[in-house]
Please model this.
Amino acid sequence: MCLHIVISELTNNILQSEMETLKLTNIAENHLLGLSPEILLKWFDEMLLIRRFEEKCAQLYGMGKIGGFCHLYNGQEAIATGSTGAITPDDYVITAYRDHGLAISKGLDPRRILAELLGKSTGTTKGKGGSMHLFSREHNFLGGHAIVGGHIPLAAGAAFAIKYRGEKRVCLCFMGDGATNIGEFHEALNLAALWKLPVIYVIENNKYGMATAVERASAVDALHLKAAAYNMRNQVVEDGHNVLKVYQAVKAAVDHARKTYEPSLLEVQTFRYRGHSMSDPIHGPYRTKEEVEAQKKLDPITVLMNILSEANLASEEYFESAEERIKAIIDECVTYTENSPEPPLEELYTDVYAE
Amino acid sequence: MPVVSFREALNQAMDEEMARDERVFLMGEEVAQYNGAYKVSQGLLAKYGPKRIIDTPIAEAGFTGIGIGSAMVGLRPIVEFMSWNFSLIAFDQIVNNAAKMLSMSGGNFNVPIVFRGPGGAAHNLAATHSQSLESLYAHFPGLKVVMPSNPRDAKGLLKTAIRDNNPVIFIESEVMYGEKGEIPEGEYTIPLGAGERMKEGNDVTIVSWSKILQHITLKAVGRLEEEGISVELIDPRTIRPMDWELVFNSVKKTNRLVIVEEGWPFAGVGAQISHEVSNHCFDYLDAPVERVTQEDVPLPYAHNLEVASLPNIQKVIRAVRKVMYRD
Model:
């Protein structure tokens, strides 16, 4: 199995850094990349947790218990888990508004995430931010950002601070394909490359910015190639439903950033099963039911199940027990949330200015 | 007391705070190698090096966002806009990220950052380069807005702004950078939200700030005194938080208020002051509150039209006479 890498031919130094990445393809010949069974099983559990969490959100949204805009991660789980699997708790993660999955992967308590979605005082931001604005300083999770592209310079800023202090951390920044057309994306990429900031930009290319297909929005279909304009290391992961492929690409970029402070732009191709947000249809004029069903055959959780089964790391019994365990966690999330109070009215006037 | 220019006062504030706190750095267009478009950062690159005095490309949204992101994780940036007019390119960053981060993150991330640079009209710069944006930024909860009128306040307020744990909008004036004034010896700071009564008086209160205060209002006050009208002059120094007690107490004494500002009238800072005063001092007012503002048009280029649009001494005198019922 060969890691599919598209090499930009525009600059020599990109070529050189890509060659370093190519060496990793040797590792890929080891099917499981040297990852321990414990880690792989943990990843399976995490991806399943994200899936079931989002399904519960859809249900609660339908019941009118979750308000506002709610963007679900179903189908994209391998990106959250594979990416955060390649970093340490010290590293920063920042993303856009489809943020539940990454928040769970970064270690935020799913009970507090659900409480946030229901506007409870025990939520991750005490009911101030909601679905699109999850944050946790404790977990180095820099948000949950709802203006497309607005968080992309912030990620470069966190990376700037890392370099300023001489640390070896990195910042992972996730965005949708639609964000690559906005000015802040281009300004941030230029600055990150110019100043050599340890940020790894990950485009979760789920093929549609809301209902506008990539090819109807971007003059360049191969989104990772936009990095070439800024002399930035870049790579595409075509099978973004395979958590190992995601991990491998992100790990290479992270290692490169720790060593050189240099940024990368990764394009991970994926698919969202739900509509853009809970208010949007799953299919419509922009994509057919058949397309959605065909993509679901590449389901990231099923792909990992198959990998684990083939390697004899997990049996049917394991998968069944995992479902049971995850169900218990989701039930606990719901109980926790339902037993949590709404924010007290005094909370309205807190956190506007810092002391 | 030493006499320094406005730009030297700002330079001293940044220099002292950078010496005091390793987390403080300055970034912006032409701030380093060129020593600043208006030489406010003169000599800082030589002293602190390129790690802390950073030239940026012309990319306001990008470098403003980088400043905010770095502040979220513990640095204390000073972001210089070559002109506040260019901050509109970074409006999303300032409004959605800097102003709201603390609240939206439920207290997880505050943003200790100063945005500074010249605002307002200079000479013949026309519509895009002459805007007074203080009312715009003061509109957003989460931001503080500071507008010093003299070198002493510029230094003391900038030092406080750099130490503040919130995003601070610090608006200077291009035409004031060379103006000199006395500053105290040694270390001093001036709190945000504390205005100054620049002159005591009995007949009418004027609230005015920044360049208009120095160039227009003070001169008008001199003429009014010659007419026998005793003016109490208030410089709020910070637009948000506003020193309401200072304003209210003065109006309760003089019973009349004129607000003189460079911005446009509609939803301007003076509109808010007028509302607060009518709410808190209604029974004390002997005349409706008057405002002197820029005319309600984009500022034209031609000198005569520019002058006609901006506040001037005559407009201030007319407004004061009106509240004194002497017109």
The two ends of chain A are 55 Å apart (CA to CA). The longest helix of chain A spans residues 37-62. Confidence is low (pLDDT under 50) at residues 1-16, 21-29 of chain A.
